[in-house]
Amino acid sequence: MTVYRLIHSGDLPAVRIGRSFRVATTDLNTFLEANAAPMS
Questions:
Q1: CA dist 6 to 24, 27, 39, 40, Å?
Q2: Range 9-26 burial, b when 16+ CB lie within 10 A, else e
Q3: SS3 content of the chain, % helix, strand, coil (to 5)
Q4: Residue 40 falls within a domain, yes or no?
Q5: Which of 6, 7, 25, 34 could serve as 14's disulfide partner, Cβ 3.0–4.6 Å?
Q6: Domain presence at residue 19
Q7: d(CA 18, CA 22)
């Protein structure tokens, strides 16, 4: 559900194909790097 919310809010770019969404690997990696919690 979280991924769907991110896609619909525009925070995670995706393409809709039929009834499913596809996220490019580069877009996912960029999102994860920008939003990763710092490791202690």
A1: 14, 12, 23, 26
A2: eeebebeeeeeeeeeeee
A3: 50, 15, 40
A4: no
A5: 7
A6: yes
A7: 10
Can you read off the two tokens belonging to residue 33? 């790097």
Residue 8's alpha-carbon distances to 15, 37, 38, 39, 40, in angstroms, are: 11, 22, 26, 28, 32
Predicted structure pTM score: 0.78
- Number of folded domains in the chain? 1
Local structure of 15: helix, strand or coil: strand
Summarised one tens digit per residue, pLDDT across range 1-40 is 999 999 999 999 999 999 999 999 999 999 999 998 887 7
Closest CA to 14 of 32, 27, 29, 31: 27
